[in-house]
Amino acid sequence: MADISVGAGRGRAELPPRTGGTPATRAFLFPPTIKYAAPPMALEAFAMRKFLTELRGKTVMTGDGQILGMIDNFVVDTLSGGIAHVLVTPSEDVEQRLFQSDAAGRLVLPFKSMRAVKDVVVMDIGK
Predict the structure, then answer these.
(1) pLDDT band with cut points at 50, 70 and 90 for residue 54
(2) pTM of the prediction?
(3) 69 CB burial (10 A radius; 0-12, 13-18, 19+)
(4) DSSP 112
(5) What CA–CA distance (Å, rounded) separates 92 from 95?
(6) How far apart are CA 16 and CA 20, in angstroms?
(7) 57: closest CA among 74, 42, 79?
(8) Rounded to 5 degrees, what angle do the CA atoms 25, 30, 34 make?
(9) What is the residue extent of each domain of the chain?
(10) For residue 86, which of 103, 109, 69 has the smallest C-alpha distance?
């Protein structure tokens, strides 16, 4: 959850007695200060923000350069609404027995292992 703190109330404050002899209520001449601290995970997610349609058809490779195939579809967790897995149509060079696959023969890779999205998608896959 993000932390939000407000430096002043609704634009009014009570001044202490030393500023004019008696307490007085004055309107601020400036807006209240609002500080927002985004959690580090949110900043990482923002840096990789993409539409799923932009990712479909992209080449998927491991961090060491092995091409796994092309993104075909995604699996969504219906309870949380988050993306659980990436479905990848494997390239001819991939040994499918090393990876989990679905009934259609696509590789089922955890979405959380996606590390970089540019011309290709880099997945951090531990075999």
Answers:
(1) confident
(2) 0.59
(3) buried
(4) G
(5) 8
(6) 8
(7) 74
(8) 105
(9) 3-37, 50-123
(10) 109
CB atoms within 10 A of CB 57: 10
Q: State the first-to-last Cα distance of the chain, in angstroms, to the nearest integer.
A: 33
The verdict on domain 50-123 having CATH code 3.30.499.10 is no
Residue 77 one-letter amino acid:
D
**Residue corresponding to tokens 């993104």:** 71
Contact 88, 82 (CB under 8 A): no
Other CB atoms within a 10 A radius of the CB of residue 68 amount to 22
User: Among the residues of 5-111, which ranges form H helices?
Assistant: 40-47, 52-55
Q: Mean of the per-residue pLDDT values for the chain?
A: 74
DSSP character at residue 19: G
Of 101, 104, 124, give the one whose Cα is nearest residue 114.
124
